[in-house]
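seq as requested:
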Amino acid sequence: MSFESLVENLQMALLVLLMLLLSAAASGEEGAFVGVNIGTDLSDMPSPTQVVALLKTQNIRHVRLYDADRAMLQALANTGIQVTVSVPNDQLLGIGQSNATAANWVARNVVAHIPGTNITAVAVGSEILTALPNAAPVLVSALRFIQSALVASNLDSKIKVSTPHSSSIILDSFPPSQAFFNRSWDPIMVQLLKFLQSTGSPFMLNVYPYYDYMQSNGVIPLDYALFRPLPPNKEAVDSNTLLHYTNVFDAVIDAAYFAMSYLNFTNIPIVVLESGWPSKGDSSEPDATVENANTYNSNLIRHVLNNTGTPKHPGTSVSTYIYELYNEDARSGALSEKNWGLFDANGVPVYVLRLTDSGTVFANDTTNQTYCVARDGADPKMLQAALDWACGPGRVNCSLLLQGKSCYEPDNVAAHATYAFNLYYQMMNKAPGSCFFNGVATITTTNPSHGTCIFPGSNGVNSTFINGTSLAPSQNSSSAASSPYVHNDGAWTIMVTVGALLLAAAIL
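C-alpha coordinates:
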Protein backbone atom coordinates (compact mmCIF):
# COMPACT_ATOMS: atom_id res chain seq x y z
CA MET A 1 0.00 0.00 0.00
CA SER A 2 1.32 3.42 -0.94
CA PHE A 3 1.89 6.16 1.63
CA GLU A 4 -0.90 8.21 0.02
CA SER A 5 -3.34 5.29 0.28
CA LEU A 6 -2.40 4.75 3.92
CA VAL A 7 -3.11 8.39 4.73
CA GLU A 8 -6.43 8.26 2.86
CA ASN A 9 -7.52 5.15 4.76
CA LEU A 10 -6.50 6.73 8.05
CA GLN A 11 -8.55 9.83 7.27
CA MET A 12 -11.59 7.73 6.40
CA ALA A 13 -11.28 5.62 9.55
CA LEU A 14 -10.98 8.69 11.74
CA LEU A 15 -13.99 10.30 10.08
CA VAL A 16 -16.08 7.19 10.77
CA LEU A 17 -14.85 7.16 14.37
CA LEU A 18 -15.74 10.82 14.78
CA MET A 19 -19.27 10.25 13.45
CA LEU A 20 -19.80 7.31 15.83
CA LEU A 21 -18.55 9.28 18.82
CA LEU A 22 -20.66 12.32 18.00
CA SER A 23 -23.69 10.06 17.59
CA ALA A 24 -23.03 8.52 21.01
CA ALA A 25 -22.64 11.97 22.57
CA ALA A 26 -25.87 13.16 20.96
CA SER A 27 -27.80 10.22 22.43
CA GLY A 28 -27.57 11.98 25.81
CA GLU A 29 -26.88 8.81 27.78
CA GLU A 30 -25.32 9.68 31.11
CA GLY A 31 -22.41 7.78 32.55
CA ALA A 32 -21.79 7.09 36.22
CA PHE A 33 -22.70 9.94 38.55
CA VAL A 34 -22.27 11.01 42.16
CA GLY A 35 -25.29 12.15 44.12
CA VAL A 36 -26.13 12.83 47.78
CA ASN A 37 -28.59 11.59 50.36
CA ILE A 38 -30.66 14.25 52.09
CA GLY A 39 -31.43 13.31 55.67
CA THR A 40 -33.63 15.54 57.80
CA ASP A 41 -32.74 14.70 61.43
CA LEU A 42 -31.49 18.22 62.13
CA SER A 43 -32.59 20.38 65.04
CA ASP A 44 -32.62 23.34 62.63
CA MET A 45 -33.42 21.78 59.26
CA PRO A 46 -33.00 24.23 56.35
CA SER A 47 -36.13 24.93 54.34
CA PRO A 48 -36.62 23.01 51.07
CA THR A 49 -35.79 26.20 49.17
CA GLN A 50 -32.51 26.56 51.06
CA VAL A 51 -31.66 22.90 50.43
CA VAL A 52 -32.22 23.29 46.71
CA ALA A 53 -30.16 26.49 46.65
CA LEU A 54 -27.26 24.56 48.19
CA LEU A 55 -27.67 21.74 45.66
CA LYS A 56 -27.55 24.24 42.80
CA THR A 57 -24.47 26.07 44.00
CA GLN A 58 -22.71 22.75 44.58
CA ASN A 59 -23.66 21.52 41.10
CA ILE A 60 -25.30 18.42 42.58
CA ARG A 61 -27.55 16.85 39.96
CA HIS A 62 -28.71 13.67 41.73
CA VAL A 63 -30.35 13.34 45.16
CA ARG A 64 -31.99 10.61 47.19
CA LEU A 65 -34.79 11.47 49.62
CA TYR A 66 -35.69 9.12 52.46
CA ASP A 67 -39.36 9.78 51.82
CA ALA A 68 -41.38 11.72 49.27
CA ASP A 69 -41.82 15.00 51.12
CA ARG A 70 -44.23 17.19 49.17
CA ALA A 71 -42.51 20.52 49.95
CA MET A 72 -39.09 19.12 49.02
CA LEU A 73 -40.37 17.70 45.74
CA GLN A 74 -42.02 21.02 44.90
CA ALA A 75 -38.80 22.90 45.63
CA LEU A 76 -36.93 20.52 43.30
CA ALA A 77 -39.36 21.21 40.45
CA ASN A 78 -37.92 22.75 37.29
CA THR A 79 -34.33 22.30 38.48
CA GLY A 80 -33.54 19.25 36.34
CA ILE A 81 -32.08 17.54 39.43
CA GLN A 82 -32.71 13.81 39.25
CA VAL A 83 -34.55 12.55 42.33
CA THR A 84 -34.85 9.14 43.96
CA VAL A 85 -37.86 9.08 46.27
CA SER A 86 -38.29 6.43 48.95
CA VAL A 87 -41.03 4.38 50.53
CA PRO A 88 -40.25 4.57 54.28
CA ASN A 89 -39.99 1.25 56.10
CA ASP A 90 -43.07 1.98 58.18
CA GLN A 91 -45.17 2.15 55.01
CA LEU A 92 -43.80 -0.99 53.39
CA LEU A 93 -46.20 -3.53 54.90
CA GLY A 94 -49.25 -1.61 53.74
CA ILE A 95 -47.94 -1.17 50.20
CA GLY A 96 -46.71 -4.76 49.96
CA GLN A 97 -50.13 -6.12 50.91
CA SER A 98 -52.33 -3.89 48.77
CA ASN A 99 -52.11 -2.96 45.11
CA ALA A 100 -54.54 -0.10 45.76
CA THR A 101 -52.38 1.30 48.57
CA ALA A 102 -49.34 1.20 46.28
CA ALA A 103 -51.29 2.91 43.50
CA ASN A 104 -52.40 5.67 45.87
CA TRP A 105 -48.80 6.15 47.07
CA VAL A 106 -47.54 6.51 43.49
CA ALA A 107 -50.37 8.89 42.56
CA ARG A 108 -49.72 11.12 45.58
CA ASN A 109 -45.92 11.01 45.72
CA VAL A 110 -44.83 10.54 42.12
CA VAL A 111 -47.49 11.29 39.50
CA ALA A 112 -48.55 14.51 41.26
CA HIS A 113 -45.03 15.91 40.81
CA ILE A 114 -44.38 14.80 37.23
CA PRO A 115 -43.14 16.26 34.92
CA GLY A 116 -41.97 19.32 36.88
CA THR A 117 -39.87 17.29 39.30
CA ASN A 118 -37.43 14.91 37.64
CA ILE A 119 -38.16 11.72 39.61
CA THR A 120 -36.09 8.87 38.16
CA ALA A 121 -36.25 6.10 40.79
CA VAL A 122 -38.25 4.76 43.72
CA ALA A 123 -36.34 3.08 46.56
CA VAL A 124 -38.77 0.77 48.32
CA GLY A 125 -37.80 0.53 51.97
CA SER A 126 -34.25 0.52 53.30
CA GLU A 127 -32.20 -2.57 54.20
CA ILE A 128 -35.41 -4.54 54.77
CA LEU A 129 -33.81 -7.99 54.94
CA THR A 130 -31.57 -6.96 57.83
CA ALA A 131 -33.45 -4.06 59.45
CA LEU A 132 -37.09 -5.20 59.14
CA PRO A 133 -37.04 -8.94 58.38
CA ASN A 134 -40.72 -9.43 59.29
CA ALA A 135 -41.59 -7.33 56.21
CA ALA A 136 -39.31 -9.34 53.91
CA PRO A 137 -42.10 -11.66 52.65
CA VAL A 138 -43.96 -8.71 51.09
CA LEU A 139 -40.88 -6.86 49.78
CA VAL A 140 -41.07 -8.13 46.20
CA SER A 141 -44.84 -7.65 46.17
CA ALA A 142 -44.30 -4.01 47.15
CA LEU A 143 -41.87 -3.59 44.25
CA ARG A 144 -44.32 -5.17 41.83
CA PHE A 145 -47.26 -3.09 43.03
CA ILE A 146 -45.25 0.15 42.72
CA GLN A 147 -44.11 -0.93 39.26
CA SER A 148 -47.69 -1.70 38.18
CA ALA A 149 -48.79 1.77 39.26
CA LEU A 150 -45.97 3.33 37.23
CA VAL A 151 -46.92 1.21 34.20
CA ALA A 152 -50.53 2.39 34.53
CA SER A 153 -49.27 6.00 34.47
CA ASN A 154 -46.91 5.30 31.56
CA LEU A 155 -43.91 6.17 33.75
CA ASP A 156 -42.22 2.76 33.95
CA SER A 157 -39.66 3.55 31.23
CA LYS A 158 -38.55 6.72 33.05
CA ILE A 159 -38.69 5.62 36.70
CA LYS A 160 -36.92 2.51 38.00
CA VAL A 161 -37.98 0.62 41.12
CA SER A 162 -35.59 -1.16 43.48
CA THR A 163 -34.74 -1.60 47.15
CA PRO A 164 -31.43 -0.83 48.92
CA HIS A 165 -29.59 -3.58 50.81
CA SER A 166 -26.97 -3.55 53.51
CA SER A 167 -23.72 -5.07 52.28
CA SER A 168 -23.95 -7.40 55.31
CA ILE A 169 -26.33 -9.63 53.33
CA ILE A 170 -23.21 -10.69 51.37
CA LEU A 171 -21.37 -13.47 53.19
CA ASP A 172 -17.70 -14.41 52.71
CA SER A 173 -17.20 -11.14 50.84
CA PHE A 174 -13.46 -11.70 50.41
CA PRO A 175 -12.24 -13.02 48.17
CA PRO A 176 -15.08 -11.53 46.08
CA SER A 177 -15.21 -14.56 43.78
CA GLN A 178 -16.40 -16.71 46.70
CA ALA A 179 -19.09 -14.28 47.90
CA PHE A 180 -22.73 -15.28 48.18
CA PHE A 181 -25.90 -13.82 49.68
CA ASN A 182 -27.13 -15.05 53.03
CA ARG A 183 -28.82 -18.24 51.82
CA SER A 184 -31.73 -17.89 54.20
CA TRP A 185 -32.90 -15.10 51.91
CA ASP A 186 -32.37 -16.98 48.62
CA PRO A 187 -36.10 -17.49 47.82
CA ILE A 188 -36.77 -13.75 48.18
CA MET A 189 -33.47 -12.73 46.55
CA VAL A 190 -34.17 -14.82 43.43
CA GLN A 191 -37.60 -13.24 43.06
CA LEU A 192 -36.10 -9.80 43.58
CA LEU A 193 -33.33 -10.31 41.01
CA LYS A 194 -35.86 -11.62 38.47
CA PHE A 195 -37.88 -8.44 39.00
CA LEU A 196 -34.85 -6.19 38.60
CA GLN A 197 -33.76 -8.05 35.48
CA SER A 198 -37.21 -7.88 33.86
CA THR A 199 -37.62 -4.14 34.57
CA GLY A 200 -34.05 -3.06 33.83
CA SER A 201 -33.70 -1.74 37.37
CA PRO A 202 -30.44 -1.66 39.36
CA PHE A 203 -29.44 -3.65 42.42
CA MET A 204 -29.20 -1.00 45.16
CA LEU A 205 -26.46 -1.49 47.74
CA ASN A 206 -25.22 0.48 50.75
CA VAL A 207 -21.42 0.29 51.00
CA TYR A 208 -19.62 1.53 54.11
CA PRO A 209 -15.87 0.75 54.13
CA TYR A 210 -15.72 2.68 57.42
CA TYR A 211 -17.67 -0.06 59.19
CA ASP A 212 -15.77 -2.82 57.39
CA TYR A 213 -12.56 -1.23 58.61
CA MET A 214 -13.83 -0.75 62.18
CA GLN A 215 -15.12 -4.32 62.45
CA SER A 216 -11.99 -5.92 60.99
CA ASN A 217 -9.95 -5.48 64.21
CA GLY A 218 -6.92 -4.26 62.32
CA VAL A 219 -7.09 -6.77 59.44
CA ILE A 220 -8.17 -4.09 56.94
CA PRO A 221 -5.54 -1.31 56.62
CA LEU A 222 -6.86 2.24 56.89
CA ASP A 223 -5.28 3.19 53.55
CA TYR A 224 -7.15 0.29 51.88
CA ALA A 225 -10.45 1.63 53.23
CA LEU A 226 -9.71 5.25 52.21
CA PHE A 227 -8.69 4.62 48.57
CA ARG A 228 -5.16 5.73 49.39
CA PRO A 229 -2.50 4.45 46.96
CA LEU A 230 -1.06 1.10 47.94
CA PRO A 231 2.22 -0.52 46.86
CA PRO A 232 1.57 -3.67 44.79
CA ASN A 233 2.62 -5.96 47.62
CA LYS A 234 -0.07 -4.44 49.86
CA GLU A 235 -2.94 -4.95 47.41
CA ALA A 236 -5.48 -7.65 48.20
CA VAL A 237 -5.49 -10.47 45.66
CA ASP A 238 -8.42 -12.78 44.91
CA SER A 239 -6.68 -16.16 44.77
CA ASN A 240 -9.34 -17.59 42.44
CA THR A 241 -9.38 -14.84 39.82
CA LEU A 242 -5.95 -13.26 40.54
CA LEU A 243 -7.69 -9.87 40.44
CA HIS A 244 -5.96 -7.19 42.53
CA TYR A 245 -8.00 -4.96 44.83
CA THR A 246 -6.73 -1.58 45.99
CA ASN A 247 -9.75 -0.53 48.07
CA VAL A 248 -12.62 -1.95 50.11
CA PHE A 249 -15.30 -0.26 47.98
CA ASP A 250 -14.40 -2.16 44.80
CA ALA A 251 -14.07 -5.44 46.69
CA VAL A 252 -17.61 -5.10 48.10
CA ILE A 253 -19.04 -4.16 44.70
CA ASP A 254 -17.42 -7.15 43.04
CA ALA A 255 -18.58 -9.40 45.87
CA ALA A 256 -22.15 -8.30 45.04
CA TYR A 257 -21.58 -9.06 41.35
CA PHE A 258 -20.27 -12.53 42.19
CA ALA A 259 -23.10 -13.16 44.67
CA MET A 260 -25.65 -12.36 41.95
CA SER A 261 -23.84 -14.59 39.47
CA TYR A 262 -23.94 -17.40 42.07
CA LEU A 263 -27.75 -17.20 41.64
CA ASN A 264 -27.31 -17.05 37.82
CA PHE A 265 -27.91 -13.32 37.37
CA THR A 266 -25.07 -11.63 35.52
CA ASN A 267 -26.49 -8.55 33.81
CA ILE A 268 -27.98 -6.45 36.63
CA PRO A 269 -26.19 -3.12 37.23
CA ILE A 270 -25.36 -1.92 40.73
CA VAL A 271 -26.07 1.51 42.19
CA VAL A 272 -24.59 2.40 45.58
CA LEU A 273 -27.31 4.29 47.38
CA GLU A 274 -25.23 5.14 50.45
CA SER A 275 -21.49 5.48 51.10
CA GLY A 276 -19.41 7.89 53.14
CA TRP A 277 -17.17 8.41 56.15
CA PRO A 278 -17.89 10.24 59.45
CA SER A 279 -15.88 13.35 60.27
CA LYS A 280 -16.14 13.06 64.05
CA GLY A 281 -16.49 10.25 66.55
CA ASP A 282 -16.12 9.48 70.22
CA SER A 283 -13.06 7.90 71.86
CA SER A 284 -13.92 4.46 70.49
CA GLU A 285 -13.86 5.79 66.91
CA PRO A 286 -10.46 7.49 66.54
CA ASP A 287 -10.52 7.25 62.73
CA ALA A 288 -13.73 9.25 62.38
CA THR A 289 -11.87 12.46 61.52
CA VAL A 290 -12.25 15.39 59.15
CA GLU A 291 -9.11 14.35 57.28
CA ASN A 292 -10.27 10.77 56.78
CA ALA A 293 -13.78 11.85 55.77
CA ASN A 294 -12.32 14.29 53.26
CA THR A 295 -9.91 11.69 51.91
CA TYR A 296 -12.58 9.02 51.54
CA ASN A 297 -15.24 11.15 49.90
CA SER A 298 -12.81 13.03 47.65
CA ASN A 299 -11.28 9.77 46.46
CA LEU A 300 -14.67 8.10 46.12
CA ILE A 301 -16.00 10.90 43.91
CA ARG A 302 -12.89 10.84 41.76
CA HIS A 303 -13.02 7.03 41.53
CA VAL A 304 -16.63 7.04 40.34
CA LEU A 305 -16.24 9.86 37.84
CA ASN A 306 -13.03 8.67 36.21
CA ASN A 307 -14.77 5.48 35.05
CA THR A 308 -12.11 3.18 36.46
CA GLY A 309 -14.72 0.58 37.33
CA THR A 310 -13.87 -2.46 39.43
CA PRO A 311 -11.38 -5.27 38.81
CA LYS A 312 -14.25 -7.57 37.73
CA HIS A 313 -15.85 -4.88 35.53
CA PRO A 314 -13.12 -2.41 34.51
CA GLY A 315 -14.44 0.70 32.83
CA THR A 316 -17.91 0.25 34.33
CA SER A 317 -18.21 2.71 37.19
CA VAL A 318 -20.94 2.40 39.79
CA SER A 319 -23.07 5.49 40.36
CA THR A 320 -22.94 6.39 44.05
CA TYR A 321 -24.86 8.59 46.47
CA ILE A 322 -22.78 10.06 49.29
CA TYR A 323 -24.14 9.77 52.79
CA GLU A 324 -24.90 12.59 53.30
CA LEU A 325 -25.59 16.27 52.57
CA TYR A 326 -25.99 17.58 56.15
CA ASN A 327 -24.69 16.58 59.56
CA GLU A 328 -27.77 15.29 61.39
CA ASP A 329 -27.32 16.52 64.94
CA ALA A 330 -30.69 15.12 66.07
CA ARG A 331 -29.77 11.53 65.30
CA SER A 332 -29.44 9.16 68.23
CA GLY A 333 -26.56 6.80 68.86
CA ALA A 334 -22.81 7.28 68.75
CA LEU A 335 -21.29 10.70 68.06
CA SER A 336 -20.26 9.54 64.60
CA GLU A 337 -23.94 9.02 63.69
CA LYS A 338 -24.38 12.79 63.78
CA ASN A 339 -21.34 13.59 61.65
CA TRP A 340 -21.54 12.04 58.19
CA GLY A 341 -22.51 15.28 56.44
CA LEU A 342 -20.65 17.38 53.92
CA PHE A 343 -22.26 20.56 55.33
CA ASP A 344 -23.73 21.83 58.57
CA ALA A 345 -27.27 23.19 58.77
CA ASN A 346 -26.10 26.66 57.65
CA GLY A 347 -24.55 25.36 54.45
CA VAL A 348 -21.00 25.71 55.80
CA PRO A 349 -18.81 22.85 54.56
CA VAL A 350 -17.53 20.52 57.26
CA TYR A 351 -14.41 20.21 55.10
CA VAL A 352 -13.41 21.34 51.64
CA LEU A 353 -13.44 18.44 49.21
CA ARG A 354 -10.25 18.05 47.20
CA LEU A 355 -11.80 17.77 43.75
CA THR A 356 -9.90 20.21 41.57
CA ASP A 357 -9.78 17.68 38.73
CA SER A 358 -13.41 16.47 38.75
CA GLY A 359 -15.08 19.64 37.46
CA THR A 360 -18.53 18.07 37.39
CA VAL A 361 -19.94 17.91 40.91
CA PHE A 362 -19.46 19.74 44.17
CA ALA A 363 -18.19 23.28 44.04
CA ASN A 364 -17.21 23.55 47.69
CA ASP A 365 -13.54 23.58 46.76
CA THR A 366 -13.77 26.45 44.27
CA THR A 367 -11.80 28.81 46.48
CA ASN A 368 -8.94 26.33 46.08
CA GLN A 369 -7.70 27.50 49.48
CA THR A 370 -6.83 24.39 51.43
CA TYR A 371 -3.58 23.95 53.32
CA CYS A 372 -1.58 21.12 54.83
CA VAL A 373 -0.45 21.77 58.40
CA ALA A 374 1.11 19.88 61.31
CA ARG A 375 -1.51 18.03 63.31
CA ASP A 376 -2.13 19.38 66.82
CA GLY A 377 -0.43 17.22 69.43
CA ALA A 378 1.72 15.37 66.90
CA ASP A 379 4.87 13.78 68.26
CA PRO A 380 7.78 16.27 67.82
CA LYS A 381 10.20 13.51 66.77
CA MET A 382 7.82 12.34 64.05
CA LEU A 383 7.31 15.93 62.95
CA GLN A 384 11.05 16.43 62.73
CA ALA A 385 11.47 13.25 60.69
CA ALA A 386 8.70 14.33 58.32
CA LEU A 387 10.19 17.84 58.06
CA ASP A 388 13.60 16.37 57.22
CA TRP A 389 12.03 14.19 54.53
CA ALA A 390 10.08 17.07 52.98
CA CYS A 391 13.15 19.33 52.81
CA GLY A 392 15.30 16.43 51.55
CA PRO A 393 13.91 13.59 49.44
CA GLY A 394 10.60 15.45 49.13
CA ARG A 395 12.46 18.21 47.22
CA VAL A 396 10.69 21.05 49.01
CA ASN A 397 12.51 24.40 48.92
CA CYS A 398 12.84 25.14 52.65
CA SER A 399 15.13 28.14 52.26
CA LEU A 400 12.60 30.49 53.86
CA LEU A 401 12.92 28.49 57.10
CA LEU A 402 16.55 29.50 57.55
CA GLN A 403 17.45 31.96 60.30
CA GLY A 404 16.76 35.52 59.22
CA LYS A 405 14.27 34.48 56.52
CA SER A 406 10.58 35.33 56.52
CA CYS A 407 9.29 31.95 57.78
CA TYR A 408 11.97 31.24 60.41
CA GLU A 409 9.78 32.57 63.22
CA PRO A 410 8.26 31.00 65.21
CA ASP A 411 11.31 28.80 65.55
CA ASN A 412 9.74 25.46 66.47
CA VAL A 413 9.35 22.14 64.70
CA ALA A 414 5.55 22.36 64.37
CA ALA A 415 5.67 25.75 62.62
CA HIS A 416 8.54 24.74 60.32
CA ALA A 417 6.87 21.40 59.54
CA THR A 418 3.62 23.20 58.69
CA TYR A 419 5.42 25.37 56.13
CA ALA A 420 7.21 22.39 54.57
CA PHE A 421 4.13 20.15 54.58
CA ASN A 422 2.02 22.80 52.86
CA LEU A 423 4.70 23.51 50.27
CA TYR A 424 4.84 19.80 49.40
CA TYR A 425 1.02 19.57 49.34
CA GLN A 426 0.73 22.53 46.96
CA MET A 427 3.63 21.24 44.85
CA MET A 428 1.76 17.93 44.45
CA ASN A 429 -1.41 19.79 43.35
CA LYS A 430 -3.18 18.68 46.53
CA ALA A 431 -3.21 15.08 45.37
CA PRO A 432 -4.88 12.57 47.71
CA GLY A 433 -2.37 11.33 50.28
CA SER A 434 0.00 14.27 49.79
CA CYS A 435 -0.94 15.65 53.22
CA PHE A 436 -0.39 12.63 55.42
CA PHE A 437 3.28 12.35 56.48
CA ASN A 438 2.70 9.22 58.56
CA GLY A 439 -0.30 10.78 60.26
CA VAL A 440 1.30 13.98 61.60
CA ALA A 441 -0.28 16.30 59.00
CA THR A 442 -3.85 17.36 58.35
CA ILE A 443 -5.85 19.52 55.92
CA THR A 444 -7.23 22.88 56.99
CA THR A 445 -9.13 25.70 55.31
CA THR A 446 -7.55 28.29 57.61
CA ASN A 447 -4.70 30.15 55.95
CA PRO A 448 -1.57 29.61 58.13
CA SER A 449 0.25 32.62 56.63
CA HIS A 450 1.59 35.07 59.22
CA GLY A 451 3.42 38.37 58.97
CA THR A 452 5.67 38.29 55.91
CA CYS A 453 5.56 34.48 55.73
CA ILE A 454 3.02 33.91 52.98
CA PHE A 455 2.09 30.30 52.44
CA PRO A 456 1.72 28.95 48.88
CA GLY A 457 -1.93 28.49 47.92
CA SER A 458 -3.02 31.64 49.76
CA ASN A 459 -4.00 35.02 48.49
CA GLY A 460 -1.55 36.67 50.86
CA VAL A 461 -3.93 37.25 53.77
CA ASN A 462 -5.22 35.17 56.64
CA SER A 463 -8.63 33.82 55.73
CA THR A 464 -11.08 31.10 56.58
CA PHE A 465 -13.50 29.43 54.20
CA ILE A 466 -16.69 30.73 55.71
CA ASN A 467 -19.65 29.66 53.61
CA GLY A 468 -19.49 27.18 50.80
CA THR A 469 -22.80 28.27 49.37
CA SER A 470 -21.88 31.92 48.96
CA LEU A 471 -18.43 31.29 47.55
CA ALA A 472 -19.47 28.60 45.11
CA PRO A 473 -20.33 29.71 41.55
CA SER A 474 -23.91 30.61 40.91
CA GLN A 475 -25.95 28.72 38.34
CA ASN A 476 -25.30 31.52 35.89
CA SER A 477 -21.57 31.57 36.52
CA SER A 478 -19.24 31.22 33.57
CA SER A 479 -16.83 29.16 35.67
CA ALA A 480 -15.88 25.61 34.77
CA ALA A 481 -18.41 24.26 37.22
CA SER A 482 -21.29 25.55 35.08
CA SER A 483 -19.57 25.44 31.71
CA PRO A 484 -21.66 23.98 28.89
CA TYR A 485 -18.88 21.48 28.36
CA VAL A 486 -18.99 20.16 31.94
CA HIS A 487 -21.66 17.51 31.47
CA ASN A 488 -20.28 16.42 28.10
CA ASP A 489 -16.62 16.85 28.84
CA GLY A 490 -15.85 13.37 27.56
CA ALA A 491 -17.48 14.07 24.21
CA TRP A 492 -15.79 17.47 23.97
CA THR A 493 -12.38 15.95 24.65
CA ILE A 494 -13.06 13.28 22.04
CA MET A 495 -14.06 15.89 19.46
CA VAL A 496 -10.90 17.89 20.04
CA THR A 497 -8.67 14.81 20.02
CA VAL A 498 -10.17 13.27 16.92
CA GLY A 499 -10.21 16.64 15.20
CA ALA A 500 -6.52 17.02 15.89
CA LEU A 501 -5.87 13.55 14.49
CA LEU A 502 -7.83 14.38 11.34
CA LEU A 503 -5.90 17.58 10.92
CA ALA A 504 -2.63 15.69 11.34
CA ALA A 505 -3.71 13.12 8.77
CA ALA A 506 -4.69 15.86 6.34
CA ILE A 507 -1.28 17.50 6.75
CA LEU A 508 0.38 14.18 6.03
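The chain has 16 helices and 15 strands.
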